[in-house]
Amino acid sequence: MKVILYMAATVNGYIAREDGETPWSKEEWQNFSKMVKSARNLVIGRKTYEAMKENDEFSKIGNPFMVIVSSKSLGPGVTTVGSPKEALRMLKKEKYETALVAGGGKLNSSFLKEKLVDEIYLDIEPLIFGKGIRLFSEDDLDAKLELLGTKSISQNTVQLHYAVLK
Amino acid sequence: MKVILYMAATVNGYIAREDGETPWSKEEWQNFSKMVKSARNLVIGRKTYEAMKENDEFSKIGNPFMVIVSSKSLGPGVTTVGSPKEALRMLKKEKYETALVAGGGKLNSSFLKEKLVDEIYLDIEPLIFGKGIRLFSEDDLDAKLELLGTKSISQNTVQLHYAVLK
Fold first, then answer.
1. Alpha-carbon span B59 to B18, nearest angstrom
2. Rounded (10°) CA dihedral B38, B157, B26, A140
3. Is the ipTM here above 0.90?
4. What CA–CA distances, in Å, run from A103 to A16, A33, A106, B14?
5. How far is B25 from chain A, CA to nearest CA, in Å?
């Protein structure tokens, strides 16, 4: 099973404003949505889950199988697991070919630190924030990547596609 | 006079490790060097100046006219100014066509916050740091960009070129 991290970020590595706002382009959202529909699952952290729920986003991305990595249970009907590894074990058992990891920064750091990510898709939006939620929350991690490709997904948004070297 | 900000950064927006290390590609350095030789000047902050001096980098980039933005004087023979605007006034007076701003994060933030930057060149290195010095130090700023172009400068390094919308 391939583990893909998919995120949109500003030029300086923020995945949201401090208040969680993500003013990304329509094309970015379409691209993400397409990726989720293909993978049919989404692995996210609790805050990302709550933000997506509040914005009623699940049906728009084809109601994927949601795995929430959270230290506390989110109630009946929501699949929560305690760790990144547990999330991947569950998706593997269910025979998914791709696990799609999509934030937030804390979850991304955990996955990368544990060397669980195979590929990264990063949509770079033409914005700079002075503050916000970072692509990878501050942690002792260090990764080398290999550029697999670049793609223009709109006039001002570039998608970078990397393999994570292990 | 056009004001260009030129930086190399990791995928997640760090321009150096915590200790100042910048393990960038040879091609990135060559590209930067070429840009400095063309502009014949460099506007940097005190810490960047000290790091470049320690690594004996000035002759390698053609001994450009150095303008250091610093609240304290750095001794005779070093041109220090107290603010980004003063740096630009000085270069304008000397008839430079391009002002080349190149870090660190604090200086970059000051220039952007004061809406002094016209274009940004960002070389994205295939690395992720968990901690380090950020492309723009945390500040109340927000900028919208227009993508002018992308260029592959080595197998794994992409250069993004933006105009800053004002």
1. 26
2. 120
3. yes
4. 10, 15, 7, 19
5. 12
Alpha carbon distance A118, A108 (integer Å): 12
Q: Specify the pTM.
A: 0.96
Q: Does B139 touch chain A (CB under 8 A)?
A: yes
CATH class entry, domain A2-164 = alpha beta
Residue B80 has pLDDT above 90, yes or no: yes
Q: With an 8 Å Cβ cutoff, are A156 and B143 in contact?
A: no
| Mean pLDDT (chain B, rounded) | 96
Spatial separation of the C-alpha atoms in residues A12 and B67, rounded to whole Å: 25
Q: Which CATH number applies to B2-138: 3.10.300.10, 3.40.50.300, 1.10.1040.10, 3.40.430.10? A: 3.40.430.10
Set of chain A residues whose Cβ sits within 8 Å of the Cβ of B12: 9, 13, 134-136
Smallest Cα distance from A109 to chain B, Å: 8
